[in-house]
Task: inverse folding
């Protein structure tokens, strides 16, 4: 039975992915900052570990949880920080907030990957970093979050080259109707954005087919998804 660790799994895309993996029979380790929300996510059979993904102590807790289930086949770095809301221009971006965004979106995924690398290598696992079109496009107000995702994309790209024994994907899900996206557009109606559940099949295609490591967009994968 394969095992996945999905960070930021209490809601949004992380929760939607974890639910589908559970339905497929995967064993799961899931995390989020808010323990109550993590329990409320109600992922069947999942080992839930509440904590801050930027906290080194939490990395050790997640590694222990993975060891408790015996192996690791998939690591999904979904937990992320948007930064201040409303989104500030770079000229006014609080540097302490920028450091927090980078610690959460760049440093923590690499650190957790480093901690789990022996387990990942043992199973020839798949590593997924959740990207954004803000990583490759210049949108006003998205300089902090977008640049952090661009850095994460590059980490994924290099890791894929350095570790051909793994599959490493930067996955861009596109806009989704999530709490984070709503915080990026406070007071606006985002009901036209797709629900996270509709994007999960595109990522499952990567996980199932295991193409070459690289950056993939859900919009491009949609046509390849089996109905």
Result:
């Amino acid at each position: 039975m394969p095992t996945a660790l999905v960070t930021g799994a209490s809601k949004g895309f992380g929760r939607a992915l974890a639910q589908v993996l559970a339905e497929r029979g995967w064993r799961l380790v899931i995390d989020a900052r808010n323990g109550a929300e993590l329990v409320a996510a109600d992922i069947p059979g999942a080992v839930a570990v509440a904590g801050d993904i930027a906290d080194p102590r939490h990395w050790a807790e997640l590694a222990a949880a993975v060891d408790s289930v015996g192996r690791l086949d998939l690591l999904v770095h979904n937990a992320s920080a948007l930064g201040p809301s409303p989104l500030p221009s770079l000229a006014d971006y609080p540097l302490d907030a920028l450091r927090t965004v980078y610690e959460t979106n760049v440093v923590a995924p690499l650190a957790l990957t480093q901690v789990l690398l022996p387990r990942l290598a043992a199973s020839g696992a798949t590593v997924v970093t959740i990207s954004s079109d803000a990583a490759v496009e210049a949108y006003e107000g998205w300089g902090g979050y977008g640049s952090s995702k661009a850095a994460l994309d590059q980490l994924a790209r290099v890791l894929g080259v350095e570790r051909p024994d793994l599959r490493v994907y930067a996955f861009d899900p596109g806009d989704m109707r999530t709490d984070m996206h709503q915080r990026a557009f406070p007071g606006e109606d985002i009901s036209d954005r797709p629900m996270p559940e509709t994007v999960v099949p595109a990522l499952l295609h990567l996980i199932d087919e295991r193409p070459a490591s690289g950056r993939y967009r859900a919009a491009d994968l949609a046509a390849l998804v089996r109905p």
User: Anything to note?
Assistant: The chain has eight helices and seven strands. The chain has a mean pLDDT of 96.
